[in-house]
Design goal:
The complex is a heterotrimer of chains A (330), B (389) and C (568). Chain B is α/β, with parallel strands linked by helices and 389 residues long. Chain B has 12 helices and 16 strands. In chain C, 47% of the residues are buried. Classes of the chains: A alpha/beta (330), B alpha/beta (389), C alpha/beta (568).
Chain lengths: 330, 389, 568
């Protein structure tokens, strides 16, 4: 590409009518759900933030020295301490009387597992921090090992299927319930398939003085085994099957959910992903049983959280995934 | 103003006089009195800081890291298992060149669990890239605390102030506490060149590939070596202000021409000082090593010129290797044309008493030619089964 | 690593914000996203060539004036066509496969009526000084369209018609319940602007000749329409008092009178048949039926469907008109010279041994209808007067794709006179194409290649429908059947809110919806939003320096405007 044209594209990039805390040139895989989710969060949070980031793909692909893709103050320390780093930042801002909002970013490994204690401590101490967990349901940065967020029956390199196993034996940890049991003002889940929902929830959390938590379902094309182009489709189906409930909890109480607009059987979600391919082995009664099990888990979510949309919808999630000429009014 | 204070209390008051922005800590014996005292000062309005009582030492180190990077003077204290739990973050803090101060109330490391003093904990993290200062008494601990902030902030390196648990932390002594004016004159307001700020959004703690990692480690190593000057000048400036010096990198006491020397760190120095006066014997000098990281090679070589025999006492060991301090001292002195013979003993492990008569017994051992490359002094072998002796 | 690295390490390896821009991830790409315009199905289906999707987009943005101005670049008579067009656009509309087609004719009518109400003028440049004049024969839809488009191109137009007023068949034969004359008058008054001179009462062959017109003008456009009923008989038999449908309809429009037999069979499947059936039913004829070889919409192949406005068919049936689709009249039952009934037989268009489709009657399906009048409505041919040399005994004038009359230079033809048109929209399209071609010929520019690559239309399956909300077509008020007693227009208008809502239902098939999806969903921020710099009608540019080619934008583009193509 000719230099002058490149220059003007760069100028145009600087004039985009949105704030983006995460710039191009990062090294995420094609179709990375986490890269998108992180950018959407920074977009809604605005420039006056600082981020404490746990070790993981997001940290690695954004900060290969001497480059950084971040446009907001950002710090990575180690894997398990993002919440504590954020707490320290927040304490410093508070004592200095500065107004920036502190965000903490972690993957499911850094949140559900190794960073869980620091997160719990941060929530208990009531720090004014929005913790965002980008949930891609395994340790992707180290090469797809199971985490406590990996769904039941999914294949990872440490939960491989074989003669005696059908992928992960255990259930996905119900982290959101545990988080909300801290009685924090706001905890929610969202999905990268619903940018408007992410934006709304981030803004909501930003406006709260105190600890808030947002978990964003973010497909990993490499780890889940689907084409990068299908990231949004896969994420959408996770919601539309009931396997990933998009909900909001305030002070420990379920206050709202995104109703399923078009209910799909779980197989439509699962069959798009190589990590579940052993569940479609012909003539394997174990596969059938696991598919039924996953459907039962989805049905449980639908019942438990009222995902059929019978509940009143005071937060107007209606239309969260529709488009309009001229973009989303939100 | 001279007053009788417990060591922990004196350190807490010194910390408060440095006007920290954020203090984070998790309780562990024998560090507890320090943070209890700071908490009380905060509660009484005598220290205007955010006191973050975290859920682990790991988070304590992380909170002060986050706070210091965000532009606040930050402080924490811990001991023993707490230091080990912090270890990952300690390396991280230093690698990112974050200035902050940590007091290590030195304590033995489990197992077996022991709450009593030795220096195995801070020695275990000697390679984390921190400056380590060891205090002989509570006045030194008080003074070192203030100096540590200035050294840390000027060098952008973290400083660990090590004081023996119980022996110092829980002991009452008359202490000269610096005036607030003195501290304010000595220690300018906190400034960190890479403060996280949305006006200048820096990225800290990114990934370095093989092309850059070695250079960054090199720079870190050079910074620690260069901090010797800063450690010396801090002590000198403090002496000008208060009349009290702690010896900079190390201090030599006794007969300058002595061919026998004893080198020690921490509170053992005080015991030895008195013992050397109490017990007549060979002409000897006492080398108080204050700064263990950076390791003051040149100052040590200078102090050991003309010394024929050097006894190195330490309160830690590297099992299967030997003494930690002793090994480093030997290596440093090996560059001399006529290096002294080094006798290396671990003493006072896990709170074992270090009595005054240790000194004559050490001399006896050395005189009798029974000096060893390394041993744990005073081990009562009869307490052990045959095969373990 | 180079020994002479220009990179200077920073303390603790901190990095500057956004410095990743120096790392061009575009080199990873094996496929690149591109914008691919498709012909919207509505656009492709419109005989008048309206970019319906385009003007609906402007309505979505709330800009009615711009929408109307866009519309009238193709069709100068939206208030008319919005009422009388059989809207093949709605049949083609992809939304029909999702829930219900967009009510394009409602929107077109809304814009047309608004323009009349607001007194908007066409965006037309001044006449070219010293420019050539063009003669146009026939002030019906084809001639009016040709005049308008020629005028837009700067030509002076002399327009000839044998009737006292412009409008052609619109004025002569379309019932006022479908097209109020006030609407027609308003659109024609605007169209007959300075530079278009209407010469009424001027009849070809009597007052003016082809030769004369060709001599006096740079070009000649013929839009004479069809006024001569095609001969109709059943095996040579015809009732003595037979009159054809167009004649009866014109008579009713002129003086409000139609014959009132007890029962009537109208033979034909076009709007004339249907209009007359309804007029007669309303006039008091108790049994009115329409017999047509064609099928009903949705029940027959595309080339075998009744040429009517679909809603008119529904209204006719509501009003009690009985339809016999896929039937023809096989025998007249006469009592002397008086008709007492007809025998009809079922037939269908089938592929024959020769590979062509023929209508095949099925023996054994005959039935007799007791009617005392039969009215042929099988179409008309060009009235040859004044054009004998051009017609050479044919029923219609034959032209090429641009309307150039075959065998005669300098003459163009359009509208019903071509024999295969049948709608106002088609006539408007003929006028447009002829005007463009006339201009090109006068400026001595070559015609474009025949069949130059048309844009592909996009099927519904190639779009991402997750992003569209199901929404029923906005309903419009109609006069109740029991109240259809006078000349009041039957179908009502949309209000602004309804029009906005209906326009909002457009899926923007195959073209940019400006919905921001690609901009929002690119994990690499490699889609840049810009109205000024995007030259393809979208609002976005791809930044190929950073695009890794993941394909999310293409996958999630609701209208299917983005396609992944292999990297060269």
């Amino acid at each position: 590409m000719a230099v002058p044209e490149t220059e003007s594209m760069q100028d145009l990039r600087q004039r985009q009518p949105r704030f983006s805390g995460l710039e191009s040139g990062h090294r995420a895989c094609q179709g990375c759900g986490q890269a998108l989710a992180a950018r959407l969060v920074t977009e809604a949070a605005g420039p006056d933030v600082m981020i404490a980031n746990a070790t993981g793909c997001l940290e690695v692909f954004t900060t290969a020295w001497p480059q950084s893709a971040w446009r907001v103050p950002w710090m990575h320390s180690v894997f398990e301490n993002a919440a504590a780093i954020a707490a320290g930042m927040e304490a410093a801002l508070k004592v200095q009387g500065r107004q920036s909002k502190v965000l903490a970013f972690g993957g499911d490994g850094g949140t559900f597992d190794i960073g869980f204690q620091a997160l719990s401590g941060m929530l208990e101490r009531n720090h004014n921090v929005l913790y965002v967990c980008f949930d891609n349901e395994a340790y992707m940065n180290t090469g797809i090992q199971r985490s406590s967020s990996t769904p039941h029956a999914a294949m990872t390199t440490t939960s491989p299927p074989g003669k005696r196993r059908m992928g992960k034996r255990h259930l996905k940890k119900d982290l959101l319930s545990i988080i909300s049991a801290h009685h924090i003002p706001y905890a929610a889940s969202s999905s990268v398939a619903y940018p408007a929902d992410i934006r709304r929830k981030v803004r909501r959390a930003m406006a709260i003085e105190g600890p808030t938590f947002l978990m964003i379902h973010s497909p990993c094309p490499l780890g889940w085994g689907h084409e990068g182009a299908l990231t949004i489709e896969v994420a959408r189906l996770a919601v539309q099957t009931g396997l990933f409930p998009v909900i909001e909890l305030e002070r420990g109480t379920l206050t709202d959910c995104m109703p399923i607009r078009e209910l799909h059987p779980v197989t439509e979600y699962l069959k798009l992903q190589q990590r579940f391919r052993h569940l479609f082995a012909p003539d394997d009664p174990r596969a059938t049983e696991e598919l039924e099990h996953l459907q039962a888990l989805a049905d449980y979510n639908i019942d438990t959280y009222g995902l059929r949309g019978e509940r009143p919808d005071p937060l107007d999630t209606e239309g969260a995934d529709t488009v309009h000429r001229g973009g989303k009014v939100s | 103003m001279r007053q009788a204070l417990e060591g922990s209390q004196a350190v807490a008051r010194a910390v408060a006089s440095c006007r920290p922005g954020v203090v984070a800590a998790y309780p562990i014996t024998p560090q507890t009195h320090i943070v209890e005292n700071i908490s009380k000062l905060v509660a009484d309005g005598l220290c205007d800081c955010e006191m973050v009582s975290v859920e682990s030492e790991f988070s304590a180190a992380s909170v002060v890291l986050g706070a210091a990077a965000t532009g606040s003077r930050a402080y924490t204290a811990t001991s023993s298992q707490g230091i080990l739990l912090m270890a990952e973050v300690l390396y991280n803090i230093a690698g990112m060149r974050i200035p902050l101060v940590l007091t290590c109330a030195n304590r033995a490391v489990s197992a077996p669990i022991s709450i009593w003093n030795d220096q195995q904990d801070s020695m275990a993290v000697r390679d984390a890239g921190w400056i380590q200062l060891y205090c002989a008494d509570n006045q030194e601990a008080t003074d070192a605390t203030v100096q540590a902030f200035r050294i840390a902030e000027r060098m952008e390196l973290p400083v660990m102030v090590c004081m023996d648990g119980f022996v110092l932390t829980h002991t009452m002594e008359p202490i000269d506490l610096p005036d607030q004016d003195q501290v304010d004159g000595f220690l300018p307001p906190y400034h960190f060149s890479r403060t996280l700020d949305s006006g200048h959004p820096m990225t800290l703690g990114g990934l370095a590939g093989p092309d850059y990692y070695a250079e960054i480690r090199h720079a870190h190593h050079r910074a620690l070596l260069a901090s010797e000057t800063e450690i010396v000048s801090a002590d000198r400036d403090w002496a000008e202000l208060t009349g009290r010096a702690s010896g900079g990198l190390l201090a030599v006491e006794g007969d300058a021409d002595a061919e026998l020397a004893v080198l020690a760190i921490g509170s053992v120095v005080g015991t030895l000082r008195e013992a050397m006066q109490e017990y007549e014997g060979a002409k000897a000098k006492l080398i108080k090593l204050r700064c263990f990281r950076p390791f003051p090679v040149e100052a040590l070589q200078q102090a050991c010129r003309g010394v024929r025999r050097l006894i190195v006492l330490e309160r830690a060991l590297s099992p299967g290797g030997g003494g930690i301090l002793g090994t480093e001292v030997r290596a440093a002195l090996s560059e001399l044309s006529d290096p002294p013979v080094v006798y290396n003993y671990a003493v006072g492990l896990g709170g074992r008493d270090v009595p005054m008569d240790l000194y004559p017994r050490l001399l006896e051992a050395v005189e009798s030619g029974q000096g060893e490359r390394f041993s744990i002094f005073d081990v009562e072998l009869e307490k052990l089964p045959e095969e373990d002796r | 690593m180079s020994k002479k690295s220009s990179v200077i390490l920073t303390r603790g390896a901190y990095a500057q914000p956004g410095s990743s821009l120096s790392f061009r991830t575009g080199t990873w790409r094996v496929e690149r996203p591109v914008h691919v315009h498709h012909a919207a199905p509505c656009h492709a289906a419109c005989p008048a060539g309206e970019d319906i999707q385009g003007w609906i987009a402007l309505m979505q943005e709330g800009n009615s004036r711009a929408a109307w101005e866009g519309l009238v670049t193709a069709n100068p008579l939206p208030a008319v066509t919005g009422r009388v067009c059989p809207h093949p656009c709605e049949t083609a509309c992809n939304r029909g496969g999702f829930d219900e087609a967009i009510g394009v004719h409602h929107l077109e009518r809304y814009l047309g009526d608004m323009a009349i109400r607001e007194g908007w003028d066409y965006p037309v440049p001044p006449l070219r000084a010293g420019g050539a004049s063009i003669a146009v024969v026939g002030a019906g839809p084809a001639g009016l369209s040709a005049s308008y488009h020629l005028r837009r191109l700067g030509y002076r137009v002399e327009l000839f018609d044998d009737r006292p007023e412009a409008g052609g068949l619109l004025r002569a034969a379309i019932p006022m319940t479908r097209l109020p004359r006030s609407v027609l008058d308003a659109e024609l008054e605007r169209l007959l602007m300075p530079g278009i001179n209407l010469h009424s009462h001027r009849r070809l062959g009597r007052d003016v000749s082809i030769q004369e017109l060709q001599e006096d003008h740079a070009a000649l456009f013929l839009g004479p329409g069809i006024h001569r009923p095609k001969p109709w008989s059943v095996d040579g038999a015809i009732p003595s008092d037979m009159e054809d449908a167009l004649h009866l309809l014109k008579g009713w429009v002129d003086h409000g009178d139609v014959p009132k037999p007890k029962s009537v069979a109208i033979h034909g499947g076009g709007n004339t048949a249907l209009d007359l059936a309804r007029v007669m039913k309303r006039a008091g004829v108790s049994d009115v039926c329409v017999i047509t070889a064609s099928g009903l919409p949705g029940d027959a192949a595309a080339d075998d469907v009744m040429h009517v406005v679909p809603r008119e068919l529904d209204e006719a049936q509501e009003e009690g008109v009985v339809l016999y689709p896929h039937y023809t009249v096989q025998r007249l039952l006469m009592h002397g010279s008086k008709l007492v009934g007809i025998e009809i037989v079922r037939l269908k268009k089938l592929v024959g041994a020769d590979g062509a489709r023929h209508r095949v009657p099925f023996e054994g399906t005959e039935r007799v209808l007791d009617v005392d009048m039969v009215v042929p409505a099988i179409g008309e041919a060009v009235d040859a007067e004044g054009m004998e040399a051009l017609l050479e005994h044919a029923d219609y004038l034959r032209g090429d794709v641009w309307g150039r009359l075959l065998g005669r230079d300098g003459v163009w033809v359009g509208g019903d006179a071509r024999g295969d048109r049948g709608t106002v929209a088609a006539a408007v399209g003929d006028g447009t194409r002829a005007a463009i071609d006339i201009d090109r010929v006068l400026r001595d520019e070559p015609a474009p290649d025949a069949g130059a690559a048309d844009l592909e239309t996009i099927p519904l399956q190639a779009m991402n429908l997750h992003y569209y909300e199901h929404a029923a077509r906005v309903p419009v008020q109609k006069v109740a059947v029991s109240e259809r007693t006078d000349l009041t227009e039957i179908e009502g208008s949309m209000d602004a809110g309804q029009a906005r809502a209906e326009a909002g239902r457009c899926l923007a098939c195959g073209n940019c919806l400006a919905c921001d999806n690609c901009w929002t969903l690119c994990p690499d921020s490699a889609v840049l939003k810009t109205v000024e710099r995007a030259t393809d009608g979208s609002h976005y540019l791809f930044d190929y320096d950073y695009c890794k080619g993941c394909g999310i934008c293409a996958e999630e583009c609701p209208p299917g405007f983005i396609r992944m193509v292999p990297e060269a």
